[in-house]
Amino acid sequence: MSGPATGDDERRRLILIVEDEFFIAMDLKAALIRGGFGVLGPVSSVQGAVDLLQNKRPDAAVLDVNLGDGKVTPVAVLL
Fold first, then answer.
1. Is there a domain that residue 7 lies in?
2. How far apart are the first and last CA of the chain?
3. Which residue range forms the structural domain that includes residue 26?
4. Residue at 5 is within a domain
């Protein structure tokens, strides 16, 4: 399977990863990079994701619903 086009005239799509399980986060990151995507994160907390989103806007996100510091709902609302 081929990833998205990444020619000079097209911007690489940026995906935010919010996941508090380290190995899952690293697997997701590796898979997305292999697929040709840019990765924002991974971050493991709601606050970390909110902080990242102050300066960057991803094209899509992979969100773990239950994080160590609560539900990911504030991140989803901000997106």
1. no
2. 28
3. 14-78
4. no
pLDDT tens digits in sequence order for the chain, 79 residues long: 455 554 543 678 999 999 999 999 999 999 999 999 999 999 999 999 999 999 999 999 999 999 999 999 999 999 9
Rounded Cα gap, residues 48 and 32, in angstroms: 20
Q: Is 60 a domain residue?
A: yes
Rounded CA separation 60/29 (Å): 13
Is 1 contained in some domain? no
Q: CB–CB of 12/38 below 8 Å? A: yes
Alpha carbons 50 and 24: distance in angstroms, whole number: 20
pLDDT at position 10, please?
A: 63
3-state helix, strand, coil split of the chain in percent (to 5) is 35, 25, 40
The number of folded domains in the chain is 1
pTM value is 0.85
